Amino acid sequence: MADDNAILSTDERFMAMAIELAQAAWRLGDVPVGAVLTDSCGEVISGAFNRKEALQDPTAHAELTVIVEGAEVRGSWRLSDCVLYVTKEPCVMCAGAILACRIKRLVYGCNDPKGGAVTSLYTLLNDDRLNHQVEVTSGVLQQQCAELLRGFFAQLRRNTASKPST
């Protein structure tokens, strides 16, 4: 039981870091998703947030950016001893990247019922037909992660509604 508590507190600590990164994305006008990549000893390798709007790059998701940075830091595309913490359930593109770099474990905050590729719409990370499966923990700081997204989209709707039509 003590090991379960230690894992939970570690997961919460790194998810809190991912939430801080997500807040940075919001401040820059991007969907607030943050990601942190750690090694098997719990050392942070990289951290990133969504930058699709800032870069006008459809692939600039937090997960992809943190994976690319992590591979650069490690000097290898293989991240098989790493844990990825992300505030929102990864999409198909990000799940594919997680599989491609052989991440050992994914920890995410809230589900994405419209685009999630881990449990919501698809279960790519645990498909036995693929050559790699990922250990998944979901719901870590779920409320905070979900509130961040709800708040962002509520603000976006308010801003859109207040713009004069042309």
Query: What is the overall pLDDT average?
Result: 93
> What topology, given as strand order, has the largest sheet?
2-1-3-4-5
User: What structural class should be given to the helix and strand makeup?
Assistant: alpha/beta
Into which percentage range does the β-strand content fall? 15-25%
| Shape estimate | globular
Strand elements, count: 5
**Which sheet architecture does the biggest sheet show?**
5 strands, mixed
Distance linking N and C termini: 61 Å
Compressed to H and E, one letter per element, the order equals HEEHHEHEEH
* Total count of helical runs of at least 4 residues: 5
Percent of residues in helices: 40-55%
Poorly predicted runs are none
How big is the Rg? Answer: 16 Å
Characterise the protein shown here.
- The chain has 166 residues and is an alpha/beta fold.
- Helices cover 44% and strands 16% of the residues.
- It has 5 helices and 5 strands; from the N terminus they run H-E-E-H-H-E-H-E-E-H.
- The chain has helices spanning 2-27, 52-55, 62-74, 92-100, 142-162, and strands at residues 34-38, 44-49, 83-88, 105-110, 135-138.
- Strands 2-1-3-4-5 form a 5-stranded mixed sheet.
- Helix 1 packs parallel to helix 5 (142-162).
- It is globular and about 50 Å long.
- The termini are far apart.
